[in-house]
Amino acid sequence: MALVFAARWVLKHKLAKVWRIAEFVVARTAYSGYAAGAVVGANLALPSPADVGWSTYGNIRHAMVILMIASLTALGISLAYAVTDLILARLSLSNGDADRKARRLQTQVRLLRRVITSVIVVLAVSSILFTFPQVQALGAGLLASAGIIGIVAGVAAQSTLGNLFAGLQLAFSDALRLGDVVVVEGEWGRVEELSLVNVTIKIWDERRLVVPVANFTTTSFENWTKQGTAITAKVMMPLDWEVPIAELREEAGRLITSSDHWDGRSWSCQVVDITDNGEVMVRIVATAADTGAQWNISCEIREHLIGWLVAHYPQSLPRNRTEVISEDELGAAHLGRFAAVSPRERGSRNGLTRTDRESEEG
């Protein structure tokens, strides 16, 4: 234990200044280092068979072997995590939205160390089990039917294996990375964690959406930062026919070009549709450097143009028109429609045509 304490002190106060990985080793081995040191010390202090007898000595030695495997496995995993922590720390320094390569490597490192840790733990547990004579005897029979066991295990763990391979596929196909901005099941957020089982999405309102990793390989989703962070903001405004399009376009351009959230690439203001209820649909678009700037400039355009229209062109705001017709105008309209109908049609509307009436009179 004293040697472990001394080694940690040297790593933390001496080597950490010139060897950056030392601080990660110290942080990761806070418990596993002392546990491994205690087990190694206990193994060195084992009594001899003559002192305790062969039966007791065998039980103690068996327990020490199990503890040695467990403690050294934990220490090895801690050291592996320390090395990957150093890699992730270097990647996080340049891990902005625009650095897609750094975010891809960070995703792959995190996923790979989870896979490797799972394999090491399985091997360690298997090694511990095979220290028991009963399991060793059973192992020969199990190996003889390894094919059947493999099939059964594959069917039983189909979902788990599917998630495992789906996670590896996502990480190495560059379809999804940590920090990506995605829209999943109608929710907008960032990929916060990518594990062997689930993908955790941090939604804009601080909620967490946990989605099975296999869903990302079987269903479609939106990735707003797949090829880059540049994006276009869009604002749709339903307005009245009296809106002055030229003045509105000029005001929108003045606002966008002076905004700090515009990236300087392009903008436009156009009438793109006329709705069924008689409104003119105006679309204002402006490019932005990232999703944060896109959201801000969209709100800025919407808020400013609403206030500008209310102050200068209130008649441009959406409204429903109702035409009031007096009784005289309504009667004249009906009379005009009646005069436009031919005599034959008038008779037919009364139930008889002229020919019918002549035949009746005859």
Secondary structure: helix percent: 55-70%
Q: Main beta sheet: strand number and arrangement?
A: 5 strands, antiparallel
Strand share of the residues? 5-15%
> N-to-C SSE series?
HHHHHHHHHEEEEHEEHEEHHHH
The number of domains: 4
Radius of gyration: 38 Å
How confident overall, as mean pLDDT? 78
Structural class: alpha+beta
Ranges where pLDDT stays below 50 over 5 or more residues in a row are: 142-146, 345-362
Topology, number of strands: 8
Biggest sheet, spatial arrangement of strands: 4-3-2-1-5
Any idea what the shape is? elongated
**SS summary, helix count:** 15
Distance between the termini: 131 Å
Task: Write up what this structure looks like.
There is one protein chain. The protein has 362 residues and is an alpha+beta fold. The protein folds into four domains: 173 residues, no CATH class; 42 residues, SH3 type barrels (Roll); 86 residues, Alpha-Beta Plaits (2-Layer Sandwich); 33 residues, no CATH class. It contains 15 helices and eight strands. A five-stranded antiparallel beta sheet has the order 4-3-2-1-5. A three-stranded antiparallel beta sheet has the order 6-8-7, covered by helices on one side. Helix 3 runs antiparallel to helix 5. The C terminus is likely disordered.
